[in-house]
Specification:
alpha+beta; binds adenosine-5'-diphosphate; 23 helices
Length: 918
């Protein structure tokens, strides 16, 4: 049994300096212990100073040496009575006070009837030998632990450490043992492994983190945890040890990294005799040293694996200049990507340079020289030489630096594939240049305003500011920009800034003065950029010069307003409609005619109010519009709600697209119904006037054949009374009667036509018919008055559009006027031969009818006035002054023209009419 498991206390203070080196030496009798024994081995008396250190087992009567004094079982060899023990060296372990044991060596000698037992304290000797044994065990254990830790596989490492902790715990009876290592992470210290005896409380667990508590400890010597002391000094440490005594044993390697061995519920100070601090340092080093090496190894391997993976991922790798061979060694993966067809090997400097684009070689070479000769760090970007071309450039960032000095001087570096970044950079630079160009040539300015305590101060303007406004950044610095904003627009600018700061973006327009003092309208679009904390950093924005558009828009707005008022207030009908006659807009007058509101007009078809014939004509007219001749005017007739007929003078203007396609028609109309009606009434009135005038002539016209017929009948009746009727005679008379009847019938026929109101719809007819009709009506009357009527070339095959009876009336008016002029001339000149000449001519577009007399013509001063209504030179009651004006209206209505001129002999009227294709 090893005594180390008990607590050894010094039994006798101050006795050590006289402690015997060996039992055989002579020493003072008061040293040691002398026990007087009776023959049975009972202790009768005790002497010597150390006798007071003997504990006595409680027993009855005289105490016995073997049973009551000695540690039970400590001296198995000793039995029997003192007489048996003589001649033997006796090693006796006495029970001290409490648990203390006093180790002694001695002998018995007879003293009278009794025996004297002489004993010397050999506790120190014992302790030394125990300690030596313990240290050896400790060494052996440490050695075996170290060996196992060095040999085990990485996977078994935690297990082996745990086993080692168990051994330590059992060997030195430590209830809780743990090994703390510093984690890489920010978690601080971690218990790599923990062991507790089966009957000890669970103080620690493997993997438990213990924070920073071990950070500030002195890692050169063990730290004894004394629960009473630590409680107030280091409460954290105290609680780590469960408010009990313990020991913290450090291990620190050559790099200064520490591992701590924790012994819990372990009164180290009391056990010091068995396991000194240095023993514990040894045990701890045996475990911690190899553990740290292994862990570092693992870390290193993991790191290396990560590095390789990283290098492969990044397309990067190291290179090193090998001084002795003057060659460059490339990392395997770098070599593989740069020289895929070659085995990895060191390259000469030239071979290395040849890897790069010729354009970059000089730069690399000079940078490399500076690195080799002056130790100047190398940092540059270069392209890899790709003789095939075509592929996108591969860019590397090459870094190099000197490590160490003297014999340990190394030149190492990295190459990093930055093709992605570089190509993007080049693209971005190109885009940037394009953008710069674009901005410089556009009426736009990009600006940056720096945020400064709630204000936005100009910090940058694109170069386009100068050509656009003539200002520079300095001109706009500080509050100078506000001064340049139009006073009326400043409030807008302030609001724009407020909105920008509040909502992060803004869009506004205001005027800004340029260097020459003129204001530009700017469209300002800005965005606020914030930092990670959401605080404003700067505003980036764009100014677009919209002066022209704004002013044009203003002009358009004003003119639109004017036109809108014009259109709405116009008494004329104004509308827009599609080629299919659907209205898209109409003003109030049009709506009033169609008995609806202007809002109801869009969608209504104009065709609804036209007769089918009118609609056809209308459509034909619209179809004839072209971009070259977009305007057409006509008088159209409509059947309006609640009215019989309406006549509108209607002007259309076609709007065409770029392809010449008719998009819509804009039209202006005027109601001509009243004019039309009064004109009709006038025509009719004039007709009636002419008729009245002609009544006298007609009486004669009709009377004449009646007289002739009466004469013929009287003569026939007379012959019949005489019975002298011959067939020939009778036939001749009847024929004459018949011809006279026909003559009268013709006159009556024409009178009927003449008296009728004209049809609404125009018809197509041959104008010569009207001429002949007129002659039939007036011819005889004129001739009877001595007026010769001469006709020339009345053959005409073309047609005109209008009302035949109206044209007849025009011709009648002209003939009657001619007759009047001729007859009045003959009143003064009796030899005068009145003559009216009628002629007609036609070309492809027009028909002209001429009525010429040989009267005195018209006074040139009156030429312009004779078409005026009620203009007459005839005596009151005779002239109406309507004939020519009505005639003018009729011809005008037929699309023609009535004109007059003075010829050599007299007045010459011309009726010109357009030829109708239909
Ligand atoms: P009215 O015959 O009732 O006077 P018109 O309008 O027919 O009215 O004619 C207007 C005037 O024109 C006549 O009063 C006359 O002075 C003049 N006039 C018309 N025709 C002739 C003509 N052939 N020769 C001379 N004067 C003419």
């Amino acid at each position: 049994m090893i005594h180390g498991e008990r607590f050894f206390g010094r039994l006798l203070g101050g006795f050590g300096e006289q402690a015997p080196e060996s039992p055989g030496l002579q020493w003072r009798t008061d040293a040691g212990i002398q026990l007087v024994l009776d023959p049975q081995g009972r202790v009768i008396d005790a002497h010597g100073l150390q006798r007071f250190g003997l504990g006595l087992a409680t027993g009855e009567g005289t105490p016995r040496l073997l049973l009551d004094y000695l540690v039970p079982g400590s001296t198995q060899a000793l039995e029997g009575v003192p007489a048996d023990w003589t001649g033997h060296s006796l090693d006796l372990d006495f029970q001290g006070p409490g648990l203390n044991v006093l180790n002694t060596r001695g002998w018995v000698q007879p003293q009278g009837d009794h025996w004297l037992l002489q004993l010397l304290d050999i506790s120190d000797l014992r302790r030394h030998s125990q300690q030596a044994g313990s240290r050896e065990q400790c060494m052996q254990l440490a050695l075996s632990i170290t060996q196992q830790l060095r040999q085990c596989s990485a996977a078994r490492l935690p297990e082996v450490i745990h086993e080692a902790l168990r051994c330590v715990a059992q060997q030195w009876r430590v209830p809780c043992v743990a090994l703390a290592v510093r984690s890489d992470t920010a978690l601080g210290w971690r218990l790599y492994s923990a062991y507790h005896a089966f009957d000890a409380p669970l103080l620690w667990t493997s993997g438990q983190t213990v924070g920073e508590v071990l950070d500030d400890l002195d890692a050169t010597a063990p730290r004894h945890i004394n629960a009473d002391l630590e409680r107030s000094r280091t409460p954290l440490l105290n609680s780590l040890f469960g408010n009990a005594d313990g020991l913290l044993v450090p291990y620190r390697d050559q790099r200064g990294q520490s591992v701590w061995l924790l012994l819990g519920f372990y009164p180290a100070a009391q056990q010091r005799r068995l396991m000194s601090d240095s023993d514990w340092l040894l045990v701890c080093a045996a475990m911690a040293g190899p553990l740290q090496d292994r862990l570092r190894d693992q870390q290193h391997t993991a790191q290396q694996e990560r590095m390789v993976a990283l290098q492969e991922l990044l397309g990067t790798g190291w290179w090193e200049w090998l001084q002795p061979s003057r060659q460059i060694q490339l990392a395997a993966q770098l070599s593989a990507s740069l020289l895929p067809e070659l085995e990895p090997a060191a390259l000469t400097r030239e071979a290395w340079l040849a890897l790069f684009h010729p354009a970059d070689r000089d730069e690399i070479s000079s940078g490399f020289n500076a690195l080799l000769e002056h130790g100047k760090a190398l940092l540059l970007c270069a392209r890899v030489h790709q003789p095939q071309g075509g592929q996108p450039a591969r860019w590397y960032r090459i870094q190099g630096q000197v490590l160490g000095a003297g014999a340990g001087r190394r030149i190492v570096g990295y190459m990093l594939d930055i093709s992605d970044i570089k190509n993007q950079q080049l693209q971005a630079a190109a885009a940037h240049a394009r953008l710069d160009n674009l901005i410089a040539s556009s009426p736009a300015v990009i600006y940056v305003q720096r945020y400064d305590e709630g204000a936005l101060l100009p910090a940058f303007f694109s170069d386009s500011l100068q050509p656009l406004l003539g200002w520079s950044l300095d001109d706009c610095a500080g509050g100078a920009l506000i001064e340049k904003i139009h006073p009326d627009d400043r409030e807008q600018y302030f609001e724009r800034t407020r909105q920008l700061l509040r909502q992060g973006s803004s869009r506004s327009r205001y005027r800004l003065r340029d260097r020459s003092g003129e204001y530009h309208w700017l469209l300002d679009e800005a965005k606020l950029l914030r930092d990670d904390l959401g605080l404003p950093v700067e505003a980036v924005g764009l100014w677009l010069d919209i002066t022209e558009t704004t002013e044009a828009a203003d002009r358009v707005k004003h003119s639109e307003e004017r036109y809108r008022i014009l259109v709405e207030d116009s008494p004329a009908m104004i509308c827009r409609y599609l080629p299919d006659l659907t209205l898209t807009f109409g003003n109030r007058p049009l709506a009033t005619y169609l008995e609806c509101t202007p809002e109801q007009l869009p969608g209504i078809s104009l065709g609804d109010w036209l007769s089918s014939e009118q609609r056809q004509l209308f459509a034909r007219r619209i179809a004839s519009l072209s971009p070259e001749f977009p305007v057409s005017t006509a008088e159209i007739s409509l059947q309006l709600p609640g009215r019989e007929h309406a006549w509108w003078v209607w002007s259309d203007r076609g709007v065409f697209d770029a392809q010449g396609q008719l998009l819509e028609i804009q039209a202006v109309g005027r109601d001509n119904t009243e004019v039309r009606r009064s004109q009709q009434q006038l025509t009719h009135g004039a007709k009636m006037a002419t008729l009245g005038e002609m009544a006298t002539g007609l009486a004669h016209e009709i009377n004449q054949p009646l007289n002739v017929m009466r004469m013929a009948i009287v003569n026939v009746l007379k012959r019949l009374g005489n019975g002298d009727v011959q067939i020939d005679y009778l036939t001749e008379k009847l024929t004459r009667i018949d011809s006279q009847i026909q003559r009268a019938a013709r006159v009556v026929d024409h009178m009927r036509v003449f008296g009728r109101r004209s049809e609404i719809e125009q018809q197509v007819f041959n104008p010569v018919q009207a001429l002949e009709g007129t002659l039939a009506l007036l011819g005889e009357g004129l001739r009877s008055k001595g007026v010769e009527v001469r006709t020339e070339e009345l053959v005409c095959s073309v047609q005109v559009r209008g009302h035949a009876d109206q044209l007849e009336q025009v011709l009648i008016n002209l003939l009657v006027n001619g007759r009047d002029a001729l007859l009045s001339k003959r009143e003064t000149d009796h030899d005068f031969q009145p003559l009216i000449t009628l002629s007609a001519e036609a070309d492809s577009s027009h028909v002209r009818l001429w009525v010429q007399d040989n009267g005195d013509g018209i006074d040139p001063r009156l030429l312009e006035r004779i078409f005026e209504p009620f203009f007459t030179t005839k005596p009151v009651g005779i002239g109406t002054g309507l004939g020519l004006s009505v005639s003018y209206g009729i011809i005008d209505n037929m699309g023609g023209r009535l004109s007059v001129s003075n010829s050599a002999t007299g007045a010459r009227f011309c009726v010109e009419l357009p030829v109708s294709e239909g």
